[in-house]
Design goal:
single chain; 390 residues; alpha/beta; 10-stranded mixed sheet; 38% helix; globular; disordered C terminus
Length: 390
């Protein structure tokens, strides 16, 4: 009798408190991952906490949770996020660019639509639930909507990173293709300063027109901001967040400038810096204020408080030519999808001692010791073998 009463009480507890438990779980999970648990948008009826995560309750979010379970059961790293550079063209000359001078190679052919679709399919089979489309400037690729259509939307959410130059002209075809979210790069709240940083006159105004058009069509929208130490000290971040509030975008995603690409010689960006922590803490009041967009930092997500550095553990970067790299900022190559299956390349990358665990203290490419490893500077025709350090 006592056992029966206990089971009845258990069922009553689950029936009356399961919703509260689910809300508490979401609140805690997102607070750990993003440093806030603010719902910034509802897309197709599902709550969005960040453009960089699937909308909660959507099929891609279920795919993410299922893959996390199997990652534990199989005791191996599986990717949940991929950035795919769909082309090697750009109409800007950004001062911080990590692509040009590092990834671009004259004479190499970009993946065709069919090859892109095959690579996307292989990535989704590995478990990827978030696909970022980057470049170059991805909107300069004419068949980008067809590349987006190659994604199985029941398994992955799709995100576009663009400088915004052509966004207003192409946003409707992106909507028809099934794109979910759009980040537009905004690095200063002043048109003259932003255009000077990106070396593209008129870009600021076109970017804002594009993001407003995207918002009207129901996209989840955000500013992608690269913050340098000098810009932070000059008070640029608060101005950008205020611009985001006035524009009505849902998120400001902040990349702290990396010692990579055109900034590769900046030694002041190598080690973890106090200014980054100050910047993260400054966003707490904005994230508590419902009038403001969510403010998310890559530096927080790659820190000990969140998931740590994800490159080679749950994230990889695919170049326009099919090269697989651990991230956008570490340009060592581990294989090419035109020559071997992605799962084999991922297996090689994700089991190397330097990559098989998240760097708990932050981004690997900021770590002076990691930067000294030969695997970081592997050449274009050389794939580092497992346990190889020379």
């Amino acid at each position: 009798m006592k056992s029966l009463l206990s089971r009845l009480r258990l069922r009553w507890c689950l029936a009356t408190r399961s919703i509260r438990c689910g809300v508490d779980f979401a609140d805690i999970a997102y607070r750990i991952y993003l440093n806030h648990s603010k719902i910034i948008h509802f897309r197709r009826g599902f709550p969005v906490y960040s453009l960089m995560t699937p909308a909660l309750g959507s099929q891609p979010s279920t795919n993410f949770l299922a893959r996390a379970l199997y990652r534990t059961i199989q005791n191996r790293n599986l990717p949940n996020l991929m950035s795919f550079a769909v082309n090697d063209e750009c109409n800007s000359g950004c001062r911080h660019c990590s692509f040009f001078t590092a990834v671009e190679e004259a004479g190499r052919r970009c993946l065709t639509l069919a090859e892109s679709a095959q690579a996307i399919s292989q990535a989704q089979d590995l478990g990827v639930s978030v696909i970022n489309f980057v470049g170059g400037e991805p909107l300069l690729r004419e068949d980008l909507p067809d590349v987006i259509r190659a994604v199985d939307g029941t398994r992955s959410t799709t995100v576009l990173f663009t400088n915004g130059w052509a966004l207003e002209d192409r946003v409707r075809e992106l909507k028809r293709a099934g794109l979910d979210s759009i980040y537009v790069s905004i690095d200063a709240a002043n048109a003259a300063e932003h255009d000077a940083f990106r070396r593209t006159p008129g870009l600021f105004d076109r970017a804002l027109r594009g993001i407003r058009a995207a918002r009207r069509l129901g996209f989840s929208t955000g500013f992608s901001t690269t913050m340098t130490p000098e810009a932070w000290r000059a008070g640029e971040l608060p101005r950008i967040i205020e611009l985001a509030r006035r524009t009505g975008v849902h998120e400001v995603f902040v990349f702290d400038a990396m010692p990579s690409g055109r900034f590769s010689t900046r030694q002041d960006l190598v080690d973890d810096c106090d200014w980054i922590e100050d910047m993260i803490q400054s966003a707490v009041p904005w994230n508590r204020d419902e009038r403001y967009p969510g403010v998310t930092f890559m530096a927080y997500m790659s820190s000990h408080r969140s998931v740590g550095c994800a490159c080679g553990t749950s994230y990889f970067y695919l170049s326009p030519y099919g090269d697989v790299m651990s991230c956008d900022f570490n340009h060592a190559r581990f294989g090419n999808v035109l020559r071997e299956p992605l799962w084999k390349i991922w297996g090689r990358l994700s089991t190397l001692p330097e990559f098989c665990q998240s760097k708990w203290g932050g981004c690997k490419i900021r770590d002076p010791e990691f930067r000294e490893l030969p695997v970081v500077s592997a050449g274009p025709d050389r794939r580092p073998a497992r346990n190889e350090l020379v």
